[in-house]
Design brief:
With 348 residues, the chain is α/β, with parallel strands linked by helices. Helix content is 28%, strand content 14%. The longest helix has 14 residues. The structure holds iron/sulfur cluster (SF4).
Length: 348
């Protein structure tokens, strides 16, 4: 891990601008993946699960997987598995009922004061536990001209003070497209800030190139980037360089994780993650209970188990490094915080 203070200023440009090439190489087959991680076979793998959800992973993320290790926590997040074919009671295609909250194409408006834009239909990495793995992206895919209806919706609704770019991953777009959209939002006077949710920044930190930094510096509204990092092995020097450049622009950097069986379901792992995030200028924000999407039950941690893990995490860290244990409940006015000692839930 690079410590920020040890990076000479002139070395901040060492991130190579070849992210588009890395992006174009991210589609793989299960067989290719197993060869690249030097496993002849894997007891959980299923090529047919690729048909349920394509296998995508960029090389910088692959490089962090320990070779020959079948239970590597990064490998298990991307490996198509036989268990994805299992139908489990309570798991559905749209567990958050997002389609109910879409007033116009590309917009999800669940909570007062903030609106979410489906700014992209794809990701550079396909996380097998993804809550939007069955999302009807084709109904929300937007060209520049298509965005006018969504922008008009925000323009006419002056209670909206925050616009959230989500997806898919908004950073998968070219700078031209992404900064056109950010520029349009930047002009909406009642919008106070813009939030970008991205796992791409973790799986392909080379995306934060000089052109991106320059263009982001020209946006006037405060920017918040919520990264999606689940395990300390996902951190690294390239990500540290990316977050340093974003910190230099006064971007607020937060992280959210999903609590996942056999991946990060131990307080010690989550502690290392929080410590590592802080070293690169990122504060842990949310630790989510898995959304019950079809084909992901093998990742589930029960709420009672989650409370114990979170309690142990809280005992080992200062409060500002403890992410909030949270669940998203359809129909609630906000995300829901889980308390340790009672069944009490607190709306966030
Ligand atoms: S990056 Fe996010 S939206 Fe994309 S597959 Fe992973 S969890 Fe889903």
């Amino acid at each position: 891990m690079i410590h920020l203070s040890t990076i000479p200023v002139e070395d901040k440009t060492v991130i190579t601008p070849d992210w588009k090439e890395l992006l174009s190489q991210s589609k793989l087959s299960t067989q290719d993946l197993l060869k690249l991680v030097r496993l002849e076979k894997h007891p959980l793998a299923s090529e047919s699960a690729e048909k349920l959800f394509e296998l995508r992973v960029p090389k910088p993320y692959l490089d962090k997987i320990e070779k020959g290790k079948a239970d590597d926590p990064l490998l298990l997040q991307i490996l198509p598995q036989l268990a994805e074919h299992t139908n489990t009671a309570g798991f559905t295609n749209d567990p958050l009922e997002e389609e109910k909250y879409s007033p116009v194409k590309g917009v999800i408006h669940k909570y007062e004061n903030r609106v979410l834009l489906i700014a992209s239909s794809t990701c550079v990495i396909n996380c097998r536990y993804c809550f939007r793995r069955n999302f009807p992206y084709s109904e929300h895919t937007q060209s520049k001209s298509d965005w006018q209806e969504a922008l008009d919706y925000i323009r006419k609704n002056d209670s909206i003070t925050e616009v959230i770019l989500s997806g898919g991953d908004p950073l998968i777009h070219s700078n031209n497209y992404l900064f056109w959209l950010l520029g349009e939002i930047d002009q909406l006077t009642h919008v106070k800030r813009i939030r970008i949710h991205s796992r791409l920044i973790v799986s392909l930190p080379q995306r934060i190139d000089a052109e991106f930094i320059k263009a982001l510096g020209e946006i006037n509204k405060p920017i918040i980037i919520v990264m999606h990092c689940n395990h300390p092995n996902e951190l690294g020097d390239e990500l540290a360089l990316a977050t340093q450049q974003l910190s230099d622009l006064n971007v607020t950097l937060l992280n959210q994780s999903v609590l996942l069986r056999s991946i990060n379901d131990q307080a010690e792992i989550l502690k290392q993650l929080s410590e590592g995030l802080f070293e690169i200028g990122v504060l842990p924000y949310y630790l989510f209970i898995l959304d019950k999407v079809t084909g992901t039950a093998h990742f589930e941690i029960s709420i009672s188990e989650a409370k114990k893990i979170h309690q142990a995490l809280q005992a080992s860290l200062p409060g500002y490094l403890v992410p909030r244990l949270t669940i998203e409940v359809p129909g609630q006015e906000s995300k829901t915080s889980i308390s340790h000692n009672t069944n009490q839930i607190i709306n966030l």
